[in-house]
Design brief:
The protein is mostly beta strands. About 5% of the residues lie in helices and about 40% in strands. The chain is globular, with a radius of gyration of 17 Å. Strand 2 and strand 3 form a beta hairpin. The strands form three sheets. A seven-stranded antiparallel sheet has the order 1-4-13-6-7-8-9, covered by helices on one side. The longest helix is centred in the middle third of the chain and has 14 residues. It contains two helices and 16 strands.
């Protein structure tokens, strides 16, 4: 299947250098916390979630490396449903949040904590999958009314447990030198997802995200943490200058 309609998004000095049609360098300058620095390519910005382009079976393959093994913030590549994206000001058509569906290689520094389940890794270099129930977006609108209650630890713990009961999840930690070129494969079909690095299977799960999903590749300086004790924090981090490179992207 042809990869089409790729769009670039940058913020606060983030840059994307194109080497060829499917090879790029994503870079963000150093700076203090408080400003969201982003370099991102995706193929869904002007689409409703129901029109996102990717369904199983499909196979993403690319090569990637990073400037450092530990980049403050998050970066990665794969498929998701942009569950929190309102796209206000970006020409998008998603006005309400959704439960997450994703299959991706996700790299998250401290203090990120991005799992609903206490036994799964929630930061570091991850191969991760989320699958959520099919719920119309308008039914989630009332949750916004309850969001202020998350400041209360007891309520936040209950909400996190409820999320864990609704959202299926699987993730595994990856151990490798991220500054070296590696080949990453994500094979998504109706029976599950396989993650391979340098043609070696590193994670396999029978949990498969609910499509359609969009392609995303990004580098930023943000964090989000929903801890098992109910503490909920999010924001941006102070960072040095950093970059990632992606080349030879194919999706079949």
């Amino acid at each position: 299947m042809r990869i089409a309609n790729l769009s670039q998004r940058t913020n606060q000095g983030g840059q994307i250098e194109t080497f060829d049609e499917f090879s790029w360098r994503f870079s963000c300058p150093g700076g203090k916390a408080g400003r969201y620095r982003l370099a991102q390519i995706d193929d869904y910005q002007a689409l409703r979630r129901s029109r996102f382009p990717w369904m199983p079976p499909c196979h993403l393959r690319l090569e990637a490396r990073a400037s450092h093994n530990h980049l403050s913030g998050t970066w990665g590549f794969g498929f998701w449903n942009d569950p929190f994206g309102m796209n206000l000001g970006f020409g998008g058509k998603r006005l309400l949040p959704a439960f997450p569906d994703a299959a991706w290689f996700f790299f998250a520094s401290e203090p990120n904590y991005l799992s609903f389940r206490n036994h799964l890794p929630a930061q570091g270099a991850l191969a991760a999958v989320f699958r959520s129930p099919l719920v119309p977006a308008w039914m989630l609108a009332p949750l916004g009314i309850a969001a202020p209650l998350l400041v209360f630890r007891w309520f936040s713990r209950l909400a996190r447990r409820a999320a864990a009961s609704l959202v299926q999840e699987d993730s595994g930690e990856i151990k490798l030198d991220l500054t070296e070129w590696h080949t990453y494969d994500l094979v998504w079909d109706d029976s599950g997802v396989q993650f391979l690095i340098d043609d070696q299977l590193v994670r396999q799960t029978q949990i498969t995200p609910r499509g359609p999903l969009g392609l995303v590749m990004w580098l930023d300086n943000q964090y989000a943490a929903w801890q098992p004790d109910g503490r909920l924090k999010y924001g941006t981090l102070e960072t040095g200058a950093r970059w990632i490179e992606i080349r030879n992207l194919t999706i079949t």
